[in-house]
From TrEMBL:
GO MF annotation: an example: oxidoreductase activity
Residue stretches making up the Enoyl reductase (ER) domain: 17-334
Name listed for the protein in its UniProt record: Enoyl reductase (ER) domain-containing protein
Signal peptide: none
Pfam families assigned to the protein according to its UniProt record, in alphabetical order: ADH_N, ADH_zinc_N
CDD domains xref list: QOR1
InterPro entries according to UniProt: ADH-like_C, ADH-like_N, ER, GroES-like_sf, NAD(P)-bd_dom_sf, Quin_OxRdtase/zeta-crystal_CS, Zn-ADH-like_protein
Organism field: Linum trigynum
């Protein structure tokens, strides 16, 4: 089978070959069924997340031994089942997520880790769902318990997790403020019904958010959703209400912010660290319930996946480049065995 293999740590956005840390193997062994309850999936699409980029760089919190096949969330068609599999049959459409291995034509998972994709859902969209929407769903619904009428501030709002947070915020009835960079991203956010959009390349975040809050007679922000970090986090703390909740999602800016504990004490803030992948180990039922609800929402048209760029495995360096250079508006996808989707949009 074809598989994208990380042979050494480094920048995967460099051109394939030469010093690139990733190599497209065309004769990689097809993974066997490891136990009676395992299922082999022919991957149709897999999502590329910022965490995948960091992992190949060697800068992610989980550092697998070399060589390894990167990848996390994916969707595809059941290709083979073990003798003890009762939940799926060959031909079923499924999606899931893994710590590694989805950047390949086949992947094996236990049946307990797979989710049936409703017939109404596109497989490419389903492959983009677990990590981005799963992160936002667990953060906003399970952890922050975001409610109707609360004010939600989303930083990095045009990225994969940002767009998912906005949609879930609207489903929960929140007043949503989005911060992003660039006219194209701002246009998309406005089309999604965001209550207030800030283009940080053209206007000051502080003045824009404060003016909006004043115009709506709102005291401040109740929930901060932060996948960016850095100076933007520090600036956003100025808007938080007493009793606000801070969701620490990631540090796309490359800078880890400092949240003053004394102010958190005085203002009774709750700070949630959200490492979504660890729920698979510590709270698997939370992930299961979350993804089932998200698939239901997708089937009913309540959420939509915005795919910004789509590539084949052989174009992986371009896919990583789109993530690195923040060209993506929504999700970057890699499609496999599907000429209709495997096309660079750069």
């Amino acid at each position: 089978m074809e598989a994208l293999v990380c042979k050494k740590l480094g920048d995967p956005s460099t051109a394939a070959g030469g010093d690139s840390p990733i190599v497209l193997s065309k004769n990689h062994p097809v993974p066997p069924l490891g136990s009676p309850t395992t299922v082999r999936v022919r991957v149709k699409a897999t999502s590329l997340n910022f965490a995948n980029y960091l992992q190949v760089l060697g800068q992610y919190q989980e550092k697998p031994p070399l060589p390894f096949i990167p990848g996390s969330d994916y969707a595809g068609v059941v290709d083979a089942v073990g003798s003890g599999v009762s939940l799926f049959k060959i031909g079923d459409h499924v999606c899931s997520f893994a710590s590694l291995g989805s950047f390949a034509q086949f992947i094996v998972a236990d049946q307990s880790e797979l989710y049936l994709v409703p017939k109404e859902c596109d497989l490419v969209a389903a492959a983009a769902l677990p990590v981005a929407f799963g992160t936002s769903h667990v953060a906003l619904v399970h952890r922050a318990q975001l409610g109707s009428g609360q004010v939600l501030l989303v930083l990095g709002a045009a990225g994969g997790v940002g767009l998912s947070a906005i949609q879930i915020g609207k489903i929960r009835g929140a007043i949503v403020i989005a911060v992003a960079r660039g006219e194209e991203k701002i246009k998309l956010l406005r089309s999604m019904g965001v209550d207030h959009v800030v283009d940080s390349t053209k206007e000051g975040v502080t003045a824009s958010v404060k003016n909006f809050l004043k115009s709506r007679k709102l005291k401040g922000v109740d929930v901060l959703y932060d996948p960016v970090g850095g100076k933007l986090t520090k600036e956003s703390l100025k808007f938080l209400n007493w009793g606000a909740q801070i969701l620490v999602i990631g540090f796309a800016s490359g800078e880890i912010p400092l949240i003053p504990a004394n102010i958190a004490l005085v203002k009774n803030w709750t700070i949630h660290g959200l490492y979504w992948g660890s729920y698979k180990i510590h709270r698997p039922p939370v992930l299961e319930d979350s993804l089932k609800e998200l698939l239901s929402w997708m089937a009913r048209g309540l959420i939509t996946i915005h795919v910004s760029h789509t590539y084949s495995l052989s174009e992986a360096s371009l896919a990583f480049s789109a993530i690195k250079e923040r060209k993506a508006i929504g999700k970057v996808m890699i499609t496999i065995d599907d000429a209709r989707h495997s096309r660079s949009k750069l």
